[in-house]
Design a protein that fits this description.
The chain has 235 residues and is of the alpha+beta class. The chain is built from five helices and five strands. The protein is 62% helix and 13% strand.
Length: 235
């Protein structure tokens, strides 16, 4: 009887404490849930922070790019404006120059052409030089003086080129047509840079001798056309 009583008390004790096990399990589960929750929340916060940083970087880059495009657009507008002014100046200079040539009966000895490089002004050699010489003539000084005044008003580069016909020359001063063509081109450049004070960095000079003829060398007129000075105002 006593043994039965003791067993009954033990059973009641087991029942009275069994809820602690369930409670403990529930607490453990909740603890695990909150640990997982806070871990995921921390990861999400990190991800959001990375997204925010990436967006900020991209927004900054876009803003910089927008500023760069704005500056380039302003520079392009300025260049177009300057180009328009240069073209107007060149057109005005061209008209004034043609009037000068007409007044001095030189119009038939000068041609003004537009090519891929720019505005080309082609002079027969007798406009600038006596036969077989590289010293500027009186007319040559007058023509270059007017040209120099106009060229100083624009910033375009200038190309000066000398050409001869194919008749050989053998003098002490000019052993061949190479020397003659170069010397004539240099005379033009020296006048523009020294007398008209045009920046030498703007000017290039070349001599081609009898190469690159524009007419036949079989006639007197053709040879006269080939003996020339070309001044190109570069676009």
């Amino acid at each position: 009887m006593q043994n039965y009583h003791n067993q009954n008390e033990q059973h009641e004790m087991d029942l009275s404490t069994s809820w602690l096990i369930t409670y403990s399990d529930m607490i453990t589960i909740m603890l695990c849930f909150f640990i997982i929750f806070f871990t995921m929340a921390a990861k999400e916060t990190t991800m959001l922070s990375e997204i925010k940083n990436n967006l900020s970087t991209k927004i900054t880059a876009l803003a910089d790019e927008n500023k760069k495009l704005k500056v380039e657009k302003e520079n392009l507008a300025t260049q177009l404006f300057n180009l328009t002014n240069i073209e107007k100046d060149m057109d005005t200079s061209k008209e004034e120059f043609i009037a000068f040539l007409r007044e001095n009966n030189l119009l038939d000895q000068v041609k003004i052409l537009q090519n891929e490089k720019g505005l080309l002004i082609r002079f027969n050699d007798n406009v600038f030089f006596p036969s077989a010489k590289a010293d500027l003539s009186k007319d040559g000084y007058a023509v270059l003086s007017l040209m120099g005044d106009k060229l100083k008003k624009i910033d375009n580069d200038i190309i000066v080129e000398g050409f001869t016909d194919n008749l050989p020359i053998h003098t002490k001063e000019f052993p061949s047509n190479w020397e003659l063509s170069v010397a004539r081109a240099i005379s033009v450049v020296k006048y523009l840079t020294e007398e008209k004070e045009i920046n030498p960095n703007r000017i290039s000079v070349s001599g081609y001798g009898e190469r690159n003829p524009i007419d036949t060398n079989d006639t007197k007129k053709g040879r006269a056309n080939n003996r020339r000075i070309e001044i190109t105002i570069v676009n």
